[in-house]
Design brief:
The complex is a heterodimer of chains A (362) and B (211).
Chain A: H1 3-11, H2 28-34, H3 43-50, E1 54-55, H4 77-84, E2 99-103, E3 110-115, H5 125-129, H6 136-149, E4 154-159, H7 163-170, H8 172-181, H9 183-204, E5 211-215, H10 228-243, E6 250-253, H11 262-266, E7 272-274, H12 283-290, E8 295-301, H13 305-308, H14 311-325, E9 331-336, H15 345-358
Helix pairs in contact in A: 7-8, 8-9, 9-10, 14-15
Chain B: H1 2-14, H2 17-29, H3 34-55, H4 60-77, E1 90-96, H5 104-115, E2 118-122, H6 129-139, E3 143-147, H7 151-166, E4 174-178, H8 184-190, E5 194-195, H9 199-209
Parallel strand pairs in B: 1-2, 1-3, 3-4, 4-5
Helix pairs in contact in B: 1-2, 1-3, 1-4, 2-4, 3-4, 4-5, 5-9, 6-7
The chains are: A alpha/beta (362), B alpha/beta (211).
């Protein structure tokens, strides 16, 4: 099978020739470290070097890499132009947060200082911050990169369904109070983000992506931030605006423990869920209860194994997940939740070796 | 009077701030002891909220509106608290460690600690080792509570404890740690006094350890 066929088979909960390895994100500094200091590699070279089966996210190809989250921007007029004309190879279609952003001077990571969508008056910020989802430039550029770099890998576009944008742009504290004080404002904010993403998806459906990855954190290790009732009222209707537009297979990403709202989430119709953080969700439990409904992606620990553990521990964890969760197909191995700059290079290489060693189906 | 205080407690649990404040004013007018309102109304309410959050009955929005209702009642009774009733249960310094800008977990802990009757000095986010040590020296808190949300930053908790030892301050303060990548095992490894799995767990630990 080609890597692309492998991924598409798993997304349909089938059993490919081997367990695919895909990542939602690989930060650029560690990409460069894994490529022995090179910055001029193609996505295909990167996948081949490690044995991954898909790519999306962004690459330092030809340009200076910066640490930190490429998805978040500062929401200025120049940021809109930067969104229309990406300088670095990327396959992302993530809207900016409508927030006051900061940058850690030591690492270059951007972070939300505080959300700006805190009142009805602040709704005018949508026009100021969100790029035009129908502007052709970004789609044209990324279509060129897609054609140039895809080879036989599965290529994905990253989007948001609107929930993460709502949480971050309001602030979780303001969101939590506003669902009681001004519920219609919360719904309006979510709807606007979701409608934006729905327009983006309409364009993505016409492009040569193999699947879509929707990044929307809903939870922490303990629980979702909202219960099922709140999810059904405040989030699902707007998320559905995006979900019903998607015409390709898609993966839903959220950190944390999703079990309390998973039945509601699954009505969106995703093909797979990611990353199944070990500290938050038991992947064997997930497979037993939901493995016949959704492909499972993830679970190689980022809190300890890949970042503070050893190559031996990494190999053991990969072997365990492949043997238990990969049985019968419907599983793609992945970190939980990304290969960050602070993963140990030797552990990522150990993961690569272990996937090759244990990943083949008999 | 006990039933009036229970009513205040119940309004706070439900997050009904206007009703809680109104009931508080009525109770005070009828001669209720502000200290009793604080202890049996507010602290009791937030304890129940914490239990419900821990058990999965309450979620973040329920906690936030309850905390807000409590804060508004505190504004009413605070000027009337005298003597022992005006004293807090203890003092905590809290912050998210250096290089980490997540604050929601820290803010929830702060909210629950204040709800439990503690004074909390909030150092914010991206708090370096020196700033934690200076705060412990200046504030002489009962507790230092450190939050780290990503693996990249959690080692700062170890460095802070080491710095407290070097400064001769470690013995005078109980150190608690929490956050997504942290575990009891890590807390033991770095010499913390406790690990809080969630905000209520942290409050319970502080209640056990406070003098």
């Amino acid at each position: 099978m080609t890597p692309r066929e492998r991924v598409l088979t798993a997304l349909k909960r089938g059993q490919p020739d081997q367990v695919p390895w895909i990542e939602n994100d690989v930060e650029e500094e560690i990409q460069i470290a894994l490529m022995d200091g090179r910055t001029d590699f193609t996505p295909g070279e990167f996948c081949r070097a490690l044995g991954m089966d898909a790519f999306g996210y962004h690459f330092p190809t030809g340009h200076t890499a910066t640490a930190g989250q490429a998805m978040q921007t500062s929401g200025t007029a120049s940021a809109k132009e930067a969104w229309y004309h990406p300088k670095r190879v990327t396959f992302d279609f993530i809207p900016p947060w409508i927030a006051d952003m900061g940058t850690d001077p030591k690492t270059g990571r951007t972070f939300v200082k505080h959300g700006l969508l805190t009142s009805r008056d602040s709704l005018k910020l949508f026009d100021e911050f969100l790029p035009d989802p129908d502007h052709p430039a970004r789609y044209d550029q990324i279509a060129e990169w897609l054609a140039k770099y895809r080879e036989d890998y599965a290529v994905f576009a990253r989007i948001r369904l609107g929930s993460a944008s709502t949480f971050e742009s309001m602030g979780l504290d303001v969101f939590s109070l506003m669902i009681f004080d001004d519920p219609d404002l919360v719904k309006e904010i979510h709807r606007r983000f979701s409608e934006w993403s729905a327009r983006v998806v309409q364009h993505l459906n016409k492009m040569d992506f193999d699947f879509i990855w929707a990044n929307d954190d809903h939870a922490d290790n303990k629980a979702p931030w909202v219960n099922m009732e709140m999810y059904e009222e405040f989030m699902k209707p707007s998320q559905m605006l995006v979900a019903k537009e998607i015409r390709k297979p898609w993966i839903f990403h959220s950190d944390g423990n999703l079990f309390p709202i998973l039945d509601g989430l699954l009505t969106l119709g995703m093909n797979a869920v990611h990353p199944v953080q070990p500290a938050a969700m038991d992947i064997n439990d997930l497979k037993a209860r939901y493995g016949d409904r959704v492909c499972i992606v993830g679970n190689i620990d980022l809190d300890y194994t890949l970042t503070r553990g050893t190559p031996e521990e990494t190999e053991a964890e990969v072997k365990d997940r492949i043997e238990k969760v990969g049985k019968g197909g419907g599983y793609m191995i992945s970190s939980a939740n990304s290969i960050t700059d602070y993963c140990k290079v030797e552990n990522v290489r150990a993961m690569s070796r272990a996937v090759k060693k244990y990943g083949k189906y008999a | 009077m006990a039933s009036e205080i229970e009513t205040i407690r119940d309004w706070v649990i439900k997050g009904k701030r206007k009703e809680a404040v109104e009931e508080t004013r009525k109770a005070l007018a009828a001669g209720a002891d502000p200290g009793a309102i604080m202890k049996d109304g507010l602290i009791a309410a937030m304890s129940i909220v914490g239990q419900k959050f821990s058990s999965g009955e309450f979620f973040l929005p329920h906690m936030m509106i309850a905390a807000r209702a409590m804060t508004e009642v505190v504004e009413v009774i605070k000027p009337l608290l005298v003597g022992e009733a005006a004293q807090t249960k203890g003092k905590a310094v809290i912050g998210t460690v250096a290089g980490d800008f997540h604050d929601i977990g820290k803010n929830i802990v702060k909210m629950m600690m204040e709800g439990a009757g503690y004074e909390v000095v909030d150092l914010g986010v991206d708090v370096g080792v020196d700033k934690f040590v200076d705060a412990v020296r200046k504030e002489a808190p009962d507790f230092l509570l450190m939050s780290a949300l990503i693996t990249l930053t959690m080692e700062s908790t170890r460095r802070t404890i080491d710095a407290l030892i070097a400064a001769g301050l470690r013995a005078g303060v109980k150190v608690g740690v929490g956050g997504a990548p942290l575990t009891q095992k890590f807390a033991n490894e770095i010499g913390a006094d406790f690990y809080g799995a969630d905000a209520y767990d942290c409050v319970q630990a502080c209640n056990r350890l406070v003098h």
